Amino acid sequence: MAQHLLKVRNIKKYFPIRSGLLRRTVGHVKAVDDVSFELAAGETLGIVGESGCGKSTLGRMIMRVTDPTDGDILFEDVNLTQMSRTQLRSIRDRFQMVFQDPYSSLNPRMNVGQILSEPLVIKGIRKKEALEKAAGLLERVGLRARDLERYPHQFSGGQRQRIGIARAISLNPKLIVADEAVSALDVSIQSQILNLMMDLKHELNLAYIFISHNLAVVRHISARVGVMYLGSMVELGDKSDVYGSPLHPYTQALLASAPVARREANRQRIVLEGELPNPANPPAGCPFHPRCPQAMDICARQKPALKEAAPRHSVSCHLY
Ligand code: SF4
């Protein structure tokens, strides 16, 4: 049995910048630049960072919705990056995605019964049986079996996200990548959906990669947390370490600007200065150095590697 469910090795995604009549490539946006991490079965890893830090692109590469420029993604020791789209179909049911806006991912012309039973029928399950399973899935996510007849527009945002989750678990996946899955919902609904996802995780031994810009949401659901900045993973560790003793100046600034974390950590407030640099023209050396209150000469010249600074707690910073 694989020790890790997922191994991401030196993954990169560079989007070409084209210009001129001939649409020549004049540069690249390094959306994800050399990110590595591992995920155990049943584990929840939160990925947090500002908008544009590359966290969604990372999630889409793991799902192979977006092809990486370089690097490897091993799922149960099978290298997804070397599989064709046809080969991927055979294992696609083992990793699924939950999106921020379930409405755009649910076909408005299909009722919920059709939406939930379709992947089961494609897998060879008879239609009647697939609909029975779909009814069970709906009840499992807190809706009613009779909702099978209704269409996506007849549900609230929170209910639609429940349908998205029901569809994601319909083929018994081992991994769900949830990209800003509760960001569009009211705060009271957010906690209901998070609690549902945590219940399902325990019941089905699901692993999650939970991507969000919201520190409180990531803290609520994750066991480990990775912090991304400008395409790089700058800190990675157990939730208690990253939130309780953040090492990277960027993580410290993020947490200090979050009201709950600031109160609990009782640390000096560090304000993030300046805008997120243009990923098409990132700073040399440490990508955070133009905004870092602790920057040194070396920071502008040399990009620090992500390395273990304490047990199970890694950081990419010349201070360690
Ligand atoms: Fe700041 Fe330098 Fe560490 Fe980057 S490497 S976070 S600039 S101290």
Can you put this structure into words, describing what you see?
This protein has an 8-stranded mixed sheet with strand order 6-7-8-3-9-10-12-11, sandwiched between helices. Strands 2-1-4-5 form a 4-stranded antiparallel sheet. Mean pLDDT is 91; it is low at 261-267. The chain has 11 helices and 12 strands. Helices cover 32% and strands 24% of the residues. The chain is globular. The chain is α/β, with parallel strands linked by helices and 320 residues long. It binds iron/sulfur cluster.
Can you give keywords for this protein?
32% helix, 11 helices, globular, binds iron/sulfur cluster, single chain, eight-stranded mixed sheet, alpha/beta, four-stranded antiparallel sheet, 320 residues, 24% strand
Number of strands: 12
Q: Residue share in helices? A: 25-40%
Q: Which distinct ligands sit in these coordinates?
A: iron/sulfur cluster
Helix/sheet category:
alpha/beta
Query: What would the principal axes of the Cα set say about the shape?
Result: globular
Uncertain segments are 261-267
Note the run of SSEs as H and E: EEEHEEHEHHHHEHEHEEHHHEE
Gap between N and C termini: 35 Å
* Rounded Rg: 21 Å
Largest sheet: 8 strands, mixed
Work out the helix count.
Answer: 11
Strand order of the largest sheet: 6-7-8-3-9-10-12-11
Indicate the proportion of strand residues.
15-25%
- Report mean pLDDT, rounded to a whole number: 91
Topology summary:
Layout: E1 6-19, E2 24-39, E3 44-48, H1 55-62, E4 70-75, E5 78-79, H2 85-89, E6 95-98, H3 102-105, H4 112-122, H5 127-140, H6 157-169, E7 175-179, H7 187-204, E8 207-212, H8 215-221, E9 224-229, E10 232-238, H9 239-244, H10 249-256, H11 259-265, E11 307-310, E12 313-315
Parallel strand pairs: 3-8, 3-9, 6-7, 7-8
Antiparallel strand pairs: 1-2, 1-4, 4-5, 9-10, 10-12, 11-12
Helix pairs in contact: 4-5, 5-6, 6-7
Bound molecules: iron/sulfur cluster.
